[in-house]
Structures are given as C-alpha cells and as structure tokens.
Write a structure and sequence with these properties.
Length: 181
C-alpha cells in the first residue's frame, strides 16, 4: 500500500498517514489500567490504511488481548473507533488477533515504569513461551511502595485476570502484581 501524506507539514517532516494513524491508536488507554496506553501494554499490533472508496482512507487496527477472554477488548475497540472518528476517519475496523498470544515481553519499558509509578508491580523476568526447561515456581516481587522483596502472594488472581494480589511484609501494603505471561 502506498503511503498517503496528510499535509505539507507532515510531508516535510516525513510523517506518513500510517504513522499518524498509529499515533492516534497509541493514545488509547487500557480501561483497566488507565495509566497505560494500548501501545505501552503491547497489545497494539498494527495500524493500516486502505481505500474503501471514501474521501478519507479507512483504518484497520489489529490488537491482541492479554487474555483470550479479556473483557476490556470491547471497551478498547469502542475507544479506538472514537479516537479515529474524532480525528476525521469515518471508517474504522478493529481486528482481534489471538496468535501469536500476547506476552508481557511485549510491554514497553515506559509501560512498566508507569505501572510502578501507579502502584502496580510490573512483570519481572521473561515469559516462558516455548521454553522446554524448568520453570521457576517461586517469584520475588518487589513492592512498588517501599521496594522490598519481602512480599507474599495473597491470591493468584487479583482485580483482573492479568494481575495477582500481593502484600508487602515490611510496609504491610497490599498491591497488584502484573503477572508474567
């Protein structure tokens, strides 16, 4: 597909229409963790413009849920459509892709830092996808409040499926941990 330039300024800056469209999609926040954008979370996979016969190119956004049954996907789809409509794109298609499966390795470093600042321990380590060796059973999770590693898992499933509930044994504060997947 040939890139379409939106304005003279963007042409001079070398910004393509697809880059502008990606930037629009990247502003959409996760409804469950509003400090993270879908780009930070790593679920924004692709943004493509195509001609559907209208005056303005149509947009196709591809996202991958953190879990196959993630209830936030409907809200994210609606938020993507609203963001593109606000920017003048009347035709927006959101495609949900389950393969390859999302992994916390796709989260940006900025996203992990935002989680920490928000009071959620970011995922640590790397996902064990395709790993054939032993899998670590215990995990030291750093408290996002006091940075202690003296923490304890209270329940494997926290406020959402992708988080576990922990408590710090030092500062006694409970906190969510974004699990490594």
């Amino acid at each position: 597909m040939t890139a379409v330039y939106i304005s003279d300024f963007e042409t001079k800056a070398g910004v393509t229409a697809e880059q502008k469209a990606w930037a629009v999609a990247a502003t959409v926040c996760d409804p469950e963790i509003p400090v993270l954008t879908i780009e930070d979370l790593g679920i924004l996979r692709a943004v493509r413009l195509f001609d559907d016969g209208g005056l303005v190119p149509a947009v196709q956004v591809t996202i991958t849920p953190t879990y196959s049954g993630c209830p936030a996907m409907d809200a994210i789809r609606d938020d993507l459509k609203a963001a593109f409509h606000k920017e003048g794109y009347p035709s927006v298609h959101v495609e949900l892709v389950l393969a390859p499966a999302w992994t916390t390795d796709w989260m940006t470093d900025a996203g992990k830092a935002k989680l920490q600042e928000y009071g959620i321990a970011p995922p640590s380590g790397r996902a064990a996808l395709g790993h054939n060796g032993p899998v670590r059973l215990s995990l030291a999770v750093k408290c996002p409040q006091c940075s202690s590693l003296n923490t304890k898992e209270l329940t494997r499933f926290g406020s959402t499926s992708c988080k576990a509930l922990y408590v710090c044994q030092d500062c006694k504060e409970p906190f969510d941990y974004f699990k490594v997947l």
